[in-house]
Amino acid sequence: MSESLSIQPEAARRAAEAIPDIPRDATGPVFRAPWEAHAFAMALALYEKSLFAWSEWSAMLGEEIKKAQAAGDPDTGETYYHHWLATLERMVAEKGAASAQSLERHYQAWERAMLRTPHGKPIELRAEDFCG
């Protein structure tokens, strides 16, 4: 994998086999940016905690991709992990692991943190980022 995370290679391989459209090379899944690897790792962790089955994930991911294509996504592969993240957010909301409101609250907090952080500096989420 191109991103160094604590993803077990065997677990990543099983996920890649269960979800055939995952971008990969000979060694396993590949990522264009660190956030893609993090989204992959979060989904893998939730799968390993039995939040969903890969068949369920694959079906929901397919729905998200079709929805994006209907909205004009060019389906070039560059947006694959955007669909993965949308599926992750939808899955945790539908399974009750987090509410849609909580996800939106955290999204807005990260947006505020990003906007106040100088370019090149690490983004740090603070309590005040949750006030909006």
Descriptive overview:
The protein is mainly alpha-helical and 132 residues long. It is built from five helices and two strands, in the order αββαααα. It has helices at 9-18, 34-48, 54-70, 80-94, 100-116, and strands at 24-25, 28-29. A two-stranded antiparallel ribbon has the order 1-2. The N and C termini lie far apart (38 Å).
Summarize the structure.
With 132 residues, the protein is mainly alpha-helical.
* Element string (H = helix, E = strand): HEEHHHH
How many helices? The count is: 5
Biggest sheet: strand arrangement: 1-2
Alpha-carbon distance between the termini?
A: 38 Å
Strand fraction equals under 5%
The unreliable regions are none
- Average pLDDT reading: 87
Rg, nearest Å: 16 Å
Overall geometric form: globular
Give me the oligomer status: single chain
Largest sheet: 2 strands, antiparallel
Measured as a percent range, the helix fraction is: 55-70%
Give me the count of strands.
2
Q: Helix/strand/pairing class, anyone?
A: mainly alpha
Key terms for this structure?
single chain, 132 residues, mainly alpha, two-stranded antiparallel ribbon, 2 strands
Which secondary structure elements does this structure contain, and how are they paired or packed?
Layout: H1 9-18, E1 24-25, E2 28-29, H2 34-48, H3 54-70, H4 80-94, H5 100-116
Antiparallel strand pairs: 1-2
Helix pairs in contact: 2-4, 3-4
